[in-house]
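Summary for the steering committee. One of the milestones for this cycle was to obtain a three-dimensional model of the protein with magnesium ion bound, which we needed before selecting residues for the alanine scan. The sequence and ligand used are listed below.
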Amino acid sequence: MKKWVYFFGAGKAEGDGEWRDLLGGKGAGLAEMTKIGLPVPAGFTISTEACDHFYKNGKKYPSELKKQVADSVARLEKVTKKKLGDPKNPLLVSVRSGSARSMPGMMETILNLGLNDKSVEGLAKVTNNERFAYDAYRRFVQMYSTVVMGMSKEDLEHRLRTMRTRLGAKEDTAVPASGWKELVGEYKQYFKEKSGNDFPEDPMEQLWGAVGAVFGSWMAEKAVTYRRVEKITGLLGTAVNVMQMVFGNTGDNSGTGVCFTRDPSSGEKIFYGDYLTNAQGEDVVAGIRTPVHLTELAKLMPKVYGQLDKVRVKLEKHYTDMQDMEFTVEDGTLYMLQTRTGKRTPAAAFKIAMDMANEKLITKEDAVLRIKPEDIERLFYPIIDAKVDKKTLESRILAHGINAVPGAAVGKACFSAAEAEEWAKKGEKVILVRRETSPEDVGGMAVAQGILTATGGKTSHAAVVARGWGKCCIVGAETLDIDYKTKLITASKNGKKVKEGEWLTLDGSEGVVYTGDMPLVTPEFPKAYQTIMKWADEIRRLRVRTNADTPQDARKAIEFGAEGIGLCRTEHMFFTDFEHPEKSHDRQLAIQEMILANDKESRVKALDKLLPFQRRDFVGIFQAMDGLPVTIRLIDPPLHEFVPHEPAKQAELAKELGISPETVARRVAQLHEANPMLGHRGCRLSITYPEILEMQVRAIIEAAIECHKGRVKVLPEIMIPLTLDKKELGILVDATRRVAEDLLKRAGVKLPYLVGTMIELPRAALLANEIAEVAEFFSFGTNDLTQTTMGLSRDDAGRFLPDYVDEKKAGVFAGDPFQTLDTKGVGMLMRWGVEKGRETRPKLKVGICGEHGGDAESVKFCHEIGMDYVSASPFRVPISRLAAAQAVVEAKQKAAKSKKK
Ligand code: PEP
Ligand code: MG
């Protein structure tokens, strides 16, 4: 017979602390605490498997469950020497949820279960406190009515307030027994009115109602949303913990508290927590009374405090991590109700991990595993000041979008990139608001505090560019209607409007757009960060490079620990001169002249104008990287992205180039493609216009020669995008080498350089053995590879992908495949590509430069398939360094585990 229920009590437990998946975090903690001899009230846990069964079988319990619960109740009655519903000495229980991952406040709890009109009298007698007994009863009836039956909490609290006014009681503590008795009557009457039934007197009926409510809460909207936001997947469900009640509200010798084994804000090794005299747990949570610090408990009840401190030491040693514990003192006796790994601020996460490794409580490897990617992310970016209360935040929500780049930003709404630049020059802070962005907008994006778009996903242009700068960005805020003409944002969900120049605050970590300006704070950089990152660097095998297009970005990335550039998107410099922004127009004109040219001769003439700009950029980047490898990618986007589409701007351009507006319009129309992402882009441009490739290679090699002569070491890697065939790539590799060799020969310089390709198309991955004959390195462009493998447009998927991720809607994917690699499908091509490529060329250098190179889970996969490096945007370099180290440790642990088996 399958076991669904696990008992704990009197120093023994059927469960185990390791069985979090089966018993939930709370259940596992209770079992473990019982086993190690801590004072835990007895009880039992209904497993998460029962919840899973419940949902897989039309909300029916497993057939054996009834008996197993009844047996466990009987056992509990034996251990506690009390009986459920006993009119003399009743057993009361709490019923709490608890899944394998902590979901604070997301699921339900019912206390004082087992009370009815008879047992309440028994409770009054044994406690010699009628007031306490009826207070407990009304709490139970209220919780049962709201949690189990879904009745209105407000309606019940209204009755409570009316009763208090009637009795002239300012606080609950001033209400006499008769008041609570009356209220129980009123609550029950309300219960009957609403449900048509009497309030259940049978404790077993109460218990099953509560179990059903806990299981039901697993699929409640807020719980589902929480799991989606926190990316919690793959759990069976929630467990149900039924435990003997102990009371913190029997008088001044009782109380309840929450404590942490170390300070969860700073990570300091101090006992930290709150205590509330004469109270139940819910009073602490409700925040009506202000708790006192634990140091007060030391004064009030030194013996209890001493015991608690011992528990602290024991638990931390046992779990080797900071614990968050709940306890109750009943008439001077301490009971532990819960222990779990405590949530902590990012700064505390670093400090605690470092300290525990130094204390030899854990190893350095464990310490590295303890840091989450979000911990790093949250260290660098400004956030909305915690002083802004929840209510204000909620009232100011304009829209939700996709959280493309974390951090927060405040600025005035501005609808065009050009205006953003003008405003910024005047010292204004702006938020650039666009339906979507294109390379034309880069200047405006660069000066904006943050970027907001109505369309697009995590690899859309706006997201990729903003990420490179670590600039707060929200994309795919589909409920926003952005009208460029009237310069007005209208939120379709709530009707709110924001005009040009009005303040906006973006929370890029959560993907929420707020109206108004809110105060921001930048978290402090903890010292422990450097220590832990040093340990990570010692452990990892993967190299970590950066995606950077400018010398500034390159320098920033070096500060973050980048070991080279894995992707320099040259076209990002076509439109903006980052060192001398005032000169941007010259290069824009040159590229536009090249695109509009009618024949090769005029194209070459225009390219000659672009050459010095590109060369200067490359010199800057080589200098910044000072001998580290630099991968420069040749032109990639379709040409239409670089020319204006509005007639007024076309006329302006025509005037500057001395041609007719009609010519410009005609040429732009010719460039139009039905599906540009699969059109004339990437290396296909260089097949048609070899002169573009020649100019770019020339700029790269001339810059390299210049640096070499100036005694700056250079390691250029020239990368050709979007290859699909060996012959195609061969033509371009030959052309590249021709130009390079000729330049080097003429300069009399010997320089190592590599020519390789991106793997962005399934065909290229499948035929990697052939491609590797002509490519010296591969870099997986997983943005395009995801798009082309899955057949999902990276720019449009934001519109429907959320439904694919939503557990309640479809739940097809656990996460956004443009953010975290689809290791099953896309990953299969990557694994194949690496393997086949190396069959041809054993020393083939392989890396990744799609956005996944900065995503921890994806980095671990890259380690697993044997890549040499990953490349991430500068701000995500530390995340990749950490993930690369974690991959090593996790692989080691996995190997050790399977050896044990
Ligand atoms: C990619 O496709 O993964 C890539 C890095 O190139 P881009 O994002 O510029 O298309
Ligand atoms: Mg690409």
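Key point for the committee: Residues 600-625 form the longest helix (26 residues).
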